[in-house]
Amino acid sequence: MLTMYSTSWCGYCKRLKRQLDDAGIGYQVIDIESDPTAEQLVREANNGNATVPTVVFPDGTVMTNPSIRQVTEKVTSAA
């Protein structure tokens, strides 16, 4: 299952969540504004920036603001 680091106000996050739902790809969401540890993880993955959505795949790879196509390709290649 994917982990998406997000905020409540992020339009890109809302779009990706909707697209993941439509594609039937399972994910969990962690709001970095409520979880300082999650925010730090996102900053470490993004050169100090709290850029969302940041998606972490089960194999540990990370994508920042990925398209649904990028996510689908990654999930399909891992299957």
TrEMBL record:
GO terms for biological process: cell redox homeostasis. Residues 3-57 form the Glutaredoxin domain. Transmembrane segments: none annotated. SUPFAM superfamilies: Thioredoxin-like (SSF52833). It comes from the Bacteria. Pfam families: Glutaredoxin. One of its GO terms (molecular function) is electron transfer activity. NCBIfam families: GlrX_actino. This is Glutaredoxin-like protein. The lineage of its organism: Bacteria, Bacillati, Actinomycetota, Actinomycetes, Frankiales.
